[in-house]
Amino acid sequence: MSERKRQRLATIVGANITARRKLMGWNQAAFAERLGMGADSLSRIERGLVAPRFPRLEQMAELLECPIADLFQTQEDRKRAYSADSPSLAFHSLDLCTKREVILMAEKIIQLMRG
Q1: Structural contact between residues 19 and 12, judged by C-beta atoms closer than 8 angstroms
Q2: Which residues of 1-18 are buried (b: 16+ CB within 10 A; e: fewer)?
Q3: First vs last C-alpha separation in the chain
Q4: Does residue 47 surpass a pLDDT of 60?
Q5: What is the separation of C-alpha 99 from the centre of its chain, rounded to a whole number of angstroms?
Q6: What are phi and psi of 27, to 5 degrees?
């Protein structure tokens, strides 16, 4: 992979980490503490200056409650994945608390159907 592509990917990953961290309601210091790293190191990752290694990406994705692949997606990727009439688009546009409620309701419906 060329250095230019590597830098672009680090920037995409950093921006996605920042966006998801903010969605979770954490500032850099709080998220860095959960990761067991310094806020300055997290800042370099979020700015795309440093690309995190895979174990760190796994840890971040787990804390951010998302698949690792989501950290690599661009806006264009998301637009292609979710058309305007897609139920996935409607779900992904919900805030985190509402998403959790929808999942709990779906689990209850599944239990009722099995039961």
Answers
A1: no
A2: eeeeeeeeebebbbbbbb
A3: 52
A4: yes
A5: 14
A6: -85, 175
What phi and psi values does residue 84 have, to the nearest 5 degrees?
-60, -30
Q: How far apart are CA 65 and CA 17, in angstroms?
A: 11
Give the whole-angstrom CA distance, residue 11 versus residue 79: 19
- Does the pLDDT value for residue 88 go beyond 90? no
- Asked whether the predicted pLDDT for residue 92 surpasses 80, the reply is no
Q: Give 66-72 contacts, CB < 8 A, sequence gap 24+.
A: 66/20, 70/16, 70/20, 71/13, 71/16, 71/17, 71/20, 72/9, 72/12, 72/13, 72/16
What is residue 99's predicted lDDT score, i.e. its pLDDT?
A: 83
The per-residue pLDDT for 44 is: 97
In whole angstroms, what is the distance from residue 115 CA to residue 112 CA? 5
Please name the residue that has the structure tokens 């961290």: 21
